[in-house]
Protein 1
Amino acid sequence: MTTAAMLLDWALTAALGVLSLALLLTVVRVVIGPTLPDRVMALDMLVAVAIGFIAVLGIRTGQTLYADIAIALGLVGFLATVAFARFILQRRSLEEDGT
Amino acid sequence: MIDALQQYVAAALVIVGSLFALAAAIGLLRLPDFYTRMHAASKAGTLGSCVMLIALAVYADDLAVTARALGGVVFFLLTAPVSAHLLAKAAHVSGLRLWEMSVLDNYAEETASDSAE
């Protein structure tokens, strides 16, 4: 194993650890809220961290299919955030109708 | 030689990207209100995942994988501002307050002057 390969292996392990910590901190924000937009934004951030995980695993395993999974996950995350933003707006107008 | 260079660059990019993601997560947890937290998540978080995808693009030997990873980067750079802006606007319209020490609310001033006309 060459020096570069060993360095890359160490960097990938360290990155996985740092990303796990980032995922944990983001999950804390999802749990404590306090409002719905906060949670939606934290879920958006979870998708970004998951894409980072996928890129690191793609390098580590050498599986080329991981790039496609990252694109698909990004698309789903974007659509989910847009749908939640529409829902927040919609909920507001429903409350106004009710009062 | 090229292999070693690819591995060094990929290692550096992976570390930088994961630190950006960690900075975004810390900002998400520590900043005082929704709008400041949103700026941490949507800028540093997107940059983190983009840098790690660029590491994948650098490391891959296959041109198709490189192209797909770079396509993913472009896609995230296009969609992240759109979703962040939409969510911030929805939160503002639904009446979520800014932090009490914020000094400027351009959107509120703009909508107030619109309704005055």
Protein 2
Amino acid sequence: MEIIGELDYSNAAELRDRLTTVALEPGQRLVLDLAGMDFCDSSGITALIAARNHAHAARADMALAAVPSHTLRVLHIVGLDQIFPLYPDSDAATRS
Amino acid sequence: MDVVRRNNVTVTGNPQGRTVVLAHGFGCDQNMWRLTVPALVRDYRVVLFDYVGAGRSDSTAFSEHRYSSLDGYAEDVVELCEALDLRDAVFVGHSVSAMIGVLAAGMAPERIGALVMVAPSPRYIDDDGYRGGFSAEDIDELLASLESNYLGWSAAMAPVIMGNAERPELGEELKNSFCATDPDMARVFARTTFLSDSRDDLKNVRVPTLVLECTQDVIAPREVGVFVHQTVPGSTLITLDATGHCPHLSSPEATNEAILQFLAGLR
Amino acid sequence: MMCRTDQQPEPHGAGEETSGAAFAALLEDSAEELYESAPCGYLSTLMDGTIAKINTTLLDWLGLEREAVVGRMRFTDLLTVGGKLYHETHFAPLLRMQGEISGIALEIKQADGGRIPVLVSSVVKRGGTGEPLLIRTTVFDARDRRAYEEELLRGRKVAEDARKQAEADRARLQDALAVLQHSLLPDSLPQVPGVETAAYYHTASPDRLGGDFYDVFPIDGKRFAFFLGDVCGKGPQAAALTSLTRYTLRAAALHDPDPVAALTTLNTVLHERYADGGDPRYCTAVFGTLEPDPVTGQVTVRLASGGHPPVLVLRADGTADFLRTPGGLLVGVLPEALFTPAGTALAPGDTLLLYTDGLTEARTGKDRTSLYGDDGLLAFATRHAGESPRAVVQALTGLLDSFGDGLDDDTALLAFGVPADLAT
């Protein structure tokens, strides 16, 4: 799933709704490609956490690909860079 | 605020003569005196004005707070006297204006030297031992009908004067809207007027006073005229053979004669 | 063959005249009839108002007999009190001055006590020499018109009332929010011996509750605990989380003031409360303790951070640096979380500064590509290193104000410092 544009308070809820429609099988991996994401604030972070919870509930996995530098910085501050597997691009994310 | 502009003051007549101030009551404006002015202009200096909210006064000066009591109107009068530097003027007040004159004379005794009361009433609602002419319910009904904004004001608002063949000069002057009163301000004036009680103030009058009453006046019945005459020390009472509340319009000759005689007899 | 005589056609010319006459006869229109049965009321009065003539239509409306009215009643007797007053003060004078008046709204009284709203027009009839003789008046039934006017007025009143209600509701809501917001922050900070404290809170919007929080409180005779943080989200939900967080940390601190322990407790509480729904809730927080040494004046700081931006230490020698706590996780996200401890000592002239990301995420340019950021903040801190906590917070407040609309998130600031003049 690709996320393009700004992910903030105004549209995070929409992302979360979308995520719930994604059907996951156990052992699958949900990859969020953030290459096109211009901005992400705390509501965006909440949406990512929700995505992870959703994946884990289905006994699937979640990873982030092509995380922009600003978001990477935020993930580092909040410690989520240790929780989300991070990959430089979606191919790398799906391959592992 | 310039008082002359605020109250649409007109000064006419003989600059050498004693000043006579003509004050309208509830209803219309200084135009009510148009049949009286000609009788005075030869010998007297005549001052006409509109209370704020009436006629062509400056309506931006209107304050519901100030004009919710007769004192507010009396202050208008005192300010007018001061602006024109009047001394010992004769104040002719119609209806509730007569009471306003009493209050103003009390506030500025050097400005007002005599009073003429035309169809005056110090209180319109009946009381113990006093007949004002209206019951409390009557006045409630009047005020309620003013609230509902129906009374008198139709879409046409102010009637426009048409040419009057007998008095062409009248037609010439009064081209514009005439007797136009803002309904909201009129409501305040009505409320102030018809709920007022100036009976006690009459006792304090210290100047020569003429009381003019009409034989048939629903708004100021005969008993009221008698009461005013008896309460104002040293006053003179003249009963005009007139119906209605505005003898200066319905019986101008008799009204003018009574006023002129009184003026001639002063000091 | 039968002839029907009444159907015989008339000769041409005579036929037209006859049908004209027949037409008129059918109408029965005498002047009398026109006057008496007109669709409006007619009235003639003497100048003193005595009724001299009145038509049947008006009598029917009034429910009166002609004998009772003509020569006996005045026009004003037909009116309500208000009408009488208006007649005396406006209607009659105007009629006198103008000679005519039209379209005045009044009400006439019926014999049975009812009222009919009417529109009245009058004209003065003058004699040969111009003297006024009598007044001719027309009275129109204005019931429908009045009903329409009342409907309009009623509609306007309803709209006006609704508007006032909405305004009152909004004022009440804002009051409630203000009270609530107020309850989420400490009224005043306690005096910490040997330490100067300063704080500042900025809410992004008066219509929404802020999500930042802080507190300072004593834990035993020697030490004080402090925390500052930011709950995710905004509004009432976030406020509930703020409240829970504050009181959990306070209670945890009194039980075990170790910063990592306190944050761990908070993490457990939040995770247990919120993790199961599809609505993850968490916060970032820094928790720490201050232990002033009355002898040296130095203050020992121990703290731990859960996903919060790193605190700043401003030194008396004019330098400033972040006190980093890498790896600390957002509080409430995972059942077991790791929090990174750190510590430092504050000497006279040093200041410890905690802040929320409203500051570093503030937009300095037109869009989100230029944010104030860590570098900006560090440069700012360096410029003010050595100043008192109050001065630092004040300078930062000025900075926040200068962001204008660029600052669209809540921001909290908390600073501790050892007064420089305590140097021994």
